[in-house]
Amino acid sequence: MIHHVQLACPRGAEDASRAFYAGLLGMTEKPKPPALAARGGCWFTGYGAELHLGVEDDFRPARKAHPALVRPDLDALAARLTAAGVPVTWGDDELPGMRRFHTQDVHGNRLEFLAPAG
């Protein structure tokens, strides 16, 4: 079992992270422990996953490595992202038995969302 996945973000990008992960994806921000809060970044939970956004001073987005998150509202999520101007690339036929798409967060990190087909 995985406890969480950490993605990187630039210093000072917490508000943009909140707008994307809480606002667009519908996740809930989880308070960081005080000893870790001083480092910056923010944590989110929802849909059976926990994502930690950690500050990297020499930030470079993950363009290949990515978390794959199961979402029961796959089509609605894709429509919400598209309406917000976030690119969505479907790949339904590439992973048998699953419908999925890739996108990127506000920092350029790759994300995959999927749901069982049928």
What best-fitting shape do the alpha-carbon axes yield?
Answer: globular
Total helical segments: 3
- Unreliable stretches covering 5 or more consecutive residues: none
Number of strands: 8
Structural class: alpha/beta
How far apart the termini lie comes to 26 Å
Helix content: 10-25%
Structure summary:
The protein is α/β, with parallel strands linked by helices and 118 residues long. It contains three helices and eight strands.
Structure explained in plain terms:
This protein has 118 residues and is of the alpha/beta class. It has three helices and eight strands, in the order E-H-E-H-E-E-E-H-E-E-E. It has helices at 14-24, 34-37, 74-83, and strands at 5-9, 28-30, 42-46, 49-55, 68-70, 89-90, 98-104, 110-116. A four-stranded mixed beta sheet has the order 1-4-3-2, with helices on one face. Strands 5-8-7-6 form a four-stranded mixed beta sheet, with no helix packed on it. The longest helix is centred in the first third of the chain and has 11 residues, at 14-24. The radius of gyration is 14 Å and the shape is globular. The mean pLDDT is 95.
